[in-house]
Amino acid sequence: MATFKTIYKCRECGATSYQRVIDRAQNGALLPTGQYRCTGCRNVFATVRAWWQPRRTPELQSHSTFG
Ligand SMILES: [Zn+2]
């Protein structure tokens, strides 16, 4: 299976390559699903961007119930 090297790193494990996710279609052919699998942690991502882009950290609530 083809491995794609990138300048990016997996946000989960730091791996620098990924593979296209291949799945069997209804006619039995193996086709890419359009998703990506990290070669390190094996997590599947919908886009390459989602693979390398750090998770959003929860923002602090600007309004509180105090006061
Ligand atoms: Zn990974």
Brief sketch in words of this structure:
The protein is mainly beta. Helices cover 7% and strands 33% of the residues.
Q: What tags apply to this protein structure?
A:
four-stranded antiparallel β-sheet, binds zinc ion, 67 residues, mainly beta, flat
Can you walk through the features of this model?
The chain has one domain (3-52). It contains one helix and four strands, in the order ββββα. Helix content is 7%, strand content 33%. With 67 residues, the protein is mostly beta strands. The radius of gyration is 17 Å and the shape is flat. The model has no long low-confidence stretch (mean pLDDT 88). A four-stranded antiparallel sheet has the order 1-2-3-4. It starts with a strand and ends in a 15-residue tail after the last helix.
Overall structural domain count: 1
| Main sheet characteristics | 4 strands, antiparallel
* Tally of contiguous helical segments: 1
Intertermini distance: 59 Å
Total E-strand runs: 4
Roughly how much helix do the residues carry, as a percent range?
Answer: under 10%
User: Which hetero ligands occur in this complex?
Assistant: zinc ion
User: What is the strand content?
Assistant: 25-35%
Principal-axis shape: flat
Specify the structural class: mainly beta
Poorly predicted sequence stretches spanning 5 or more consecutive residues:
none
Q: How are the strands of the biggest sheet laid out side by side?
A: 1-2-3-4
**What letter string, H or E per element, gives the SSE order?**
EEEEH
Mean pLDDT: 88
Radius of gyration: 17 Å
